[in-house]
Amino acid sequence: MPVVDVHTHLLPPELPRWSERFGYGGFIRLEHTGPCRARMVKDDGQLFREVEENLWSGTARLADCDRLGVDVQVLSTVPVTFAYWAKPADGAEVARFLNDHLASVVAGARTRFIGLGTLPMQGPALAVRELERCVRELGLAGVQIGSHVNEWNLSDPALFDVFAAAAELGAAVFVHPWDMMGEARMRKYWLPWLVAMPAETSLAICSVLFGGVLERLPTLRIAFAHGGGSFPGTFGRIQHGFDCRPDLVAVDNPVPPRAYLGRFWVDSLVHDPDMLRHIVKLFGEDRVMLGSDYPFPLGEDVPGALIRSMPELATARGRLLGENALRWLGRPC
Known about the structure:
globular; alpha/beta; 12 helices; 3-stranded antiparallel β-sheet; 13 strands
């Protein structure tokens, strides 16, 4: 069984100056500072992140995969490039550019890379069109979407057609947190990434469950990053809230959240053996997949090291390291 890392990020080596093209700002650009290094910079000049060539170079990625024992990487864009706040037509142009590049990298090493596209979710009809192009023309396995779309949570009726199209196409959906809640109050201590990002993922899961998305689309293959964020640690409270105040919680879906455990996937990026043990027990041995967040600093340095370090997971190791991912992606095991 191959080792499959479902959570890795990719950018093109050059990004258009979208703000000049569209006439307004907010976009990310790459400023190369050397042959193998660059800075991701916002339009206002604010540094977002220092990066290296493994963010854009397929060759560098494959060298790292060989060194780290990863057979297949699942590629998706960096969430800061979602650009859901842009005008829908402009967001569609950004998505097409990113998806064409990602598909070209996959085409260069089809046995080693699998692709997830990005969508202009602020324009659901455009998103459905780009999803169809990703799957039918570009050969991508699915898409990565954000934990919310501007003022819409994932339960919003405006987004349902996108999920319905994914289910009909057999496309995998990977939900990644972005545009973190409460960020203005979390300037110190890297708290947006440590506190708000896990909360964003829990928001996304609860929205999908309480909004009845999985109830209406039982074949939808949806996964959530970072081990489900804060959802596993607060699941008891979430279930109890449903039980004690159904008048506030069960307003769109009468099915309890516990009934959906085992109906969606999470990655293994939790950095702690007790938490990995917990999510495997909560979601099931067939619903947790290796995810490293390569090539970023909050990721797992050696993908799968935590899974391999736990003797009690020995019988499930093949599923966690590869088989579950292939089933979620709709690929043969």
